[in-house]
Amino acid sequence: MPWLVRQLVRLVVVLFCVTLLTYTIVNILPGDVAIVILGNLATPQDIAGLRADLGLDRPMLVRYFDWLGSALSGDLGRSYRSGEPVVQAILDRLPVSLQLMVMAQLIALGIAIPVALLSVRRPGGLFDRISASAAFGFLAMPNFMLGIVLIYLFSVTFDLLPATGFTPMSEGLWDNLESMILPSLTLGLIEWTVLMRVLRSDLLTTLKEDFILLARAKGLPQWRVLLQHALRPSSFTLITILGLNIGGLIGGAVIVEQIFALPGVGRLLLGGIFNRDLILVQGTVAFIAVGFVVINFLVDMLYAVLDPRVRHVRFRS
Amino acid sequence: MSASAAKVAAIAATGPRRRWRWALALPLGWLLLVVFLAITADWIGLPDPSAQELILRRKPPSAEFLLGTDNLGRDMLSRVIYGARTSLIVGICAPFLGFLVGGAIGMSAGYFRGKVDLLAVGFIDILLAFPSLVLALTFTAYLGQSLFNVTLALGILSIPAAARVSRANTLAWANRDFVLAARTVGASDWRILTREILPNLLPPMFAFWLVAISVIIVAEGALSFLGLGIPAPQPSWGGMIADGREALDVAPHTALIPAAVMFATVLSLNFVGDMVRNMVDPRRSAL
Amino acid sequence: MSDLLAIQNLVVEYPVGGGRHVHAVSDVTLSVKQGETLGLVGESGSGKSSLARALLQLPPPKAGAVLFDGQDLTKMRGQALRAVRPRLQMIFQDPIASLNPRRKVSEIIAEPLIVSGVSDAAERSRRVRAVMEAVGLDPDLVWNRRPHEFSGGQCQRIAIARALVLEPSLIVCDEPVSALDVSIRAQIVNLLEDMKARFGLTLLFIAHDLAVVKSVSDRVAVMYLGRLCEVADSDSLFATPAHPYTAALMAAIPVPDPDVPLGDTKLKPGDPPSPLDPPSGCRFRTRCPHAQPRCASDVPPLRAIAPGREVACHFPLVA
Amino acid sequence: MSGQAKSQAPLLSVRNAEVSFSTARGPLRAVDGVSFDLHEGRTLGIVGESGSGKSVLVRSLIGLVGAGSGAGVAGQVLFEGRDLRGLSPREFRGVLGTEIGIVFQDPMTSLNPVMKIGRQIGEGLRLNRGLDSKAAARRAVELLSEVGIPEPERRARQYPHEMSGGMRQRVAIAIAIACAPKLLIADEPTTALDVTVQRQILDLLQREQRQRGMAMILITHDLGVAAGRADDIMVMYAGRAVEAAATREIFRSPRMPYTEALLRSLPRLTDPTHSRLSAIPGRPPDLARRSGGCSFAPRCSYRTTQCDEQQPVLTWEASRGYACFHPRGVEGGVGA
Amino acid sequence: MALFSRRFGLAAALAAAFAVPAFAQAPAPVRGGALTIGVESDFEGFDPIRAGVYSNSTVTAASLFYETLMRLDDKGNLIPALALSMTPNEDGSVWTAKIRPNVKWHDGTPFTAQAVADHFNRLLDPANRFAGRAYLAIEKVEAPDDLTAVFRMRGPNAALPRTLAQPTVTTLIIPVKIAQEKGADYNRNPVGTGPFVFKEWRAADRLVAERNPNYWDKDKPYLDRVTVRPLPDSDARYASLVKGDVQVIWEDRAENIVKAKKDKNLRVLQWVGSGALVIPLNTQREPLNDKRVRQAVSMALNRKANAAVLTQGLRPVYDDPYGPSSGIECKDTGALKYDPAAARKLIADYGKPVKLTMTVTASPRGREGAQVFQADMKKAGIDVEIKPVDQTQLVKEALTRDFQVTGWRIIDLADVDPQMFANFHSKSPINFSGYNNAEVDRLLLVGRTSLDENKRKAAYCDLIKILNDDAVWLWSGSNIDFAITRANVHGIPALRGGAVQVEGAWLTK
Fold this sequence. Notes:
By secondary structure, chain B is mostly helical. Chain B has helices spanning 3-13, 17-40, 76-112, 114-129, 132-143, 147-157, 159-174, 177-184, 189-225, 237-244, 253-280, 282-285. The longest helix of chain B is centred in the first third of the chain and has 37 residues, at 76-112. Mean pLDDT of chain B is 80; it is low at 1-19 and 282-287. Chain E has 16 helices and 19 strands. Mean pLDDT of chain E is 85; it is low at 1-24. Classes of the chains: A mainly alpha, B mainly alpha, C alpha/beta, D alpha/beta, E alpha+beta. Chains A and B meet through helix 1, helix 6, helix 7, helix 11 and helix 13 of A and helix 1, helix 4, helix 5, helix 9 and helix 10 of B.
């Protein structure tokens, strides 16, 4: 399976570059973790001493390869700031981020697919134009604004959902879902716009294909033509965008996590950077990079499921 | 031949163009207005956008302050117009920067294929896998917050998308016979890239760029929210929304006015972008 | 007449992923004499287009030599190759795709002149006008227009003008009329014939339409699945096909005359094999009604059966 | 079957079919007042160049042009005496799925790339004939074998890209005939295929048509194909039917100068090498800028001022029709 | 001396009576229920060495598990906590604390004087680099027996009991032995003597504590469970309170406090502490090394009017950092009056154009303050460029004196000495204004060592006159902490140090 090998090489190279880049970047940021730990009352002597203790006075590359060595053996070290093992910190946050990401994408898809299907029934028609405007409206809505509007609407005014906070699944599935609906909605309501536009445009292309004509010539009703014949071959760009989004969302939902006080990876990363907690940032970034590459690997696999032509080329040795 | 049926259908799809014409006038007019005001802001007698009158903070729209005042008692109209300048500078320049770099990368990847492609795709992968937050924070923390740095950071973030678009389009165009024809007369790679492929790449890139502008304008707002946007007191739409958000119930206009302006602009950009995309649809230009 | 172009043992293969290769052209030797028109016939997958591109070094073939006026193009690189290119031009099947939609007609035709270093703008426009007139385009009407404003036939004229503007010795015409309508096709075929006479061109004329090939070619070569089947002068090839494939090809052409009965197909039923995995021995054997066991084991070499007549068959239809 | 009555009334009767599109450059009439009849069991060849409107015409008859594209469709279409244009969408789909089959030009694009062959064939059967999925699958395999595909069970489980072009077109034919239609429309069925394969596919179409007693509309730009397979031929030029007659008459004694010029411009194997082809000067008109006269007039060597000013209508002379003021081979036609 | 004993004596006597601070005529406490507190940020952890400084969010969480030796009631009186009493020697350089008997750590081991000694000695050990030690006037702590802890001071120190009574990272006593056994994990698994036992801390999400059944004060706590949730977005935090997801929030946005005051379902608690919001000027940098420029800046800034508008009158501005809780009241602070005309004159006098860079945190608060500062300065002809940076960078620039003007906050301490000494003494490593004035140094020493409360007050008042005239730091706001509770929450004491302490809190329906 040379394809699999290629993917692995890709993963390794990306990881190496991303972590090295992170290391460099966090190192050149002004201020360091010693100042953070010792606080605004520290003496310069103390700071120098702590830097030495933490090994921050050694050359950057030496430290990087040290980190890389232990990271390869599965040890991402302990946070300078909290002393918490980095792996543990990430694993604690990951379920939240994953759930947020999955629910947000499901919501986005749940809106995007029907809207796209309905709007290609009559391109340029009333529904199409209204849905396009709605999409651009949500696109223009900053999520920090949308989030607070949703909170006021759904939890303060209608008293339907909790305003903030996260309830783990272990404390009841419904409570868990309740706590995630608003944040996912905030992301999903913005995300669907892009997905809808992409799917709509691909659907329009597909609908010009002869096999759609043939399907109609078989006497299939419009909805059947759309769902069974047009949707699947039109979903490749959608899937690609989805893959990229998912990658971005693992660490990129900071604002939503902040507003809804969700303990996600984004806030962990943000805190890590503000604290100059190199070890934590490094581990998190590496993790996000792995997540990104792996998810896009899965997306590639999904292509094969959706499109037998890809399967054909790839899996027949 | 039956291909003709497809072609006719394609012409048909451009059919309601006359209806489009007035539908296009509105968004185009709005964009022109915004750009005009942003450029001439200094000369149209607006009050200083950073002049404060704290006593008059969060006043609703009135004859004196047409759009009311913000949280520090500054004239919203002036700030919205000066904010247009900031938001447009960031919105236009950042993706432009991204397109310059990403476009070049994507073009080389799509044209040369093979190892160049592998390198370019790897580079894009790295940029994508690298959390954009870290990048934005780094820029603003290390280089300082300024219009230029925010633009640069957002520009870098738009490289992967630009590279993807240009690579995909280059792949499509580089296989066309006219590229082969250029090579049969002995044109160099550089000449083919710049004279044969680039002109065909520009329209789809332009359409995409229009959409990217709206995305970046919103993204600048997110940076402002995290405190990483354009430094105060220079107004930007995103920053104004972020500032106004906390008084959503007592002075909703402080958030809603910039939000409405941003909405109208994003809507217009996308409409115009759609039009450009329709006009340059290869299916139609092949007619 | 001497050989202007000699293709020797040309091999073109390209990968399609999974470690597999398309055997597009396998060991083809062929020559084109100064001033003649060589027709190259074959169905899709026969490798005729691959052959054309390989001889123009776009990209260079995997193996073999391409002698143009005595120089081996496959050994040339960079500047040297670019210097020869103007003498070897190409016309493509899809006239619209072969013209850059974003450039003006005058720019498209002038492009080869710019590339080959004609720096005087006046000189360039003089030559562009001249060649436009030669192919039947009114320079004043077309000068500033773009390709999409023209029909397929007009576009093909523009493409021919572009090929001619450098005054080449050899033009490879890759299905130049296949995409054109019947009523336009004859115009372009006639134009090519006129241009050949006027500029003393040598043509390699590739097509799948035997009738068109017959009407323009002095000699015809037939390809099947990357190999040459038969090379002969036009009249004798069509009068008495020696290779069973040539015969089958001729039998398959629908004749525009309702009174001509549909004859025998001269083929075993079944589809052409894939160039990914061509049959052993004679590649036509899987569809050949005359196939013998020997055809599966031995590759039939291209051999002369009469003066100027070569065939690659163990059991040719003409002795 | 009350064959008597039906063999007299045409299976398909089209009157004044029109299709127009609105474009940036104004309205474009792609099909302009075409009428024809097709009787059970007959093959009508519709011949024309690209842009002549032959595909658009036929697709508009069965509702595949129009919906959603902003096209204007007019005229009367009677199928077995029923006006197709007056049917509800549901009724119309019923007719489409069961009574009319269609085969497109390029089997590469006319088959759904992501759906298994067997399902694509069985789909219409399940929907229109009410077969359950098992029965539909069984029937699909039978159909595959009928259209000459070896190992039909295995092929039914494959995707289109795993087959050769000829094979795919056989599948497309299997889909078209699955519900035993009375009318088969073949829209350039062999244009995308090699000549050697073209022969097999045309043979298959003809065989199926005869066995099932279907009527067939064969759309082609290749006069050779039409000559060998059609009973009658309708020649289209610039959206209009310019000549209609039995096949032999078209080829032996064309009335319309366009038909005549077209036939003459074909290169033939019997001609000697380097013989100059007789080309038709000029090119087809821009449909968005029709003149008031005969569309072919600018290219016609028999053109008179009448041709420029007046549009000839398709007139019938015995069993054949032509739209020309100066028909060939008719008394008073030439040089009148 | 007399002062201490008087105050302390009174406090000790009334200890029992004041154990529950009377919040008007509240109903009698009810046992049971769970309370959720929304705070601003996540917690640094609970090992002082690692945490360095506690944010007010962390203090809120830490005071669930830990306790101070003494406590202050809402009137400012000392009451016993882990210590039953604290007595000074003659000159106040040695303090002896009697430790409360029968107190146990949450793990069941007994709380002894040795633990007190260990706690403070660990913080004082330079090897541990505890940042706050610069503020501690303690030399070392000894434990002659299980119930006696002896504090040896660096010199006479009047303020120790009060200093130790305010919950901070130094005064909340942790079990050093357990902390050392657990190592790095202790930071996240606090064990203390306090009213609640640590149950769970899900980082960035919530910290859960349950009633300590073995708490030494048998009636308390009333609540069964307390959850502290970091809710960083202030609007979302407020919405959570209105919705009822949380019952108490810490808050500092005037908009929300004003709203809450009008909401009958909510109650606003506020506490005016010592300390202040300040704008330090770097006296070592051009052009601020010139007194005229500093004075001009001081006179150009319309502190009171700005605060009145921006905080909607919630946060009055004083002319010193002492605050009502410090007990220091100066008749004359020598503050320069708002006078942009005079400021312009001073700048003209200075002769060169003045351009300043103000380094602030990249937060809404920082941005707002900086813009107001900038606008005021502009009226006096001073150009200000705003440089937003993150907190870490701000601290670094302050410590390395790599700034001109910045925004800062002096935290609420029970006694002003540590802050004032650290910030203005010329030898202090964290005097980041680089201020050097022998008279100020002398006065600071008087304030630290004098046992005469009046002399101390006088010294601090003299000090503030010099500082104000020299315009070293500008006092831009008082240090007021706000919390908003649902109306059914009772028994939350003064928000000392910004901490919401719920040991005595209870819920009604």
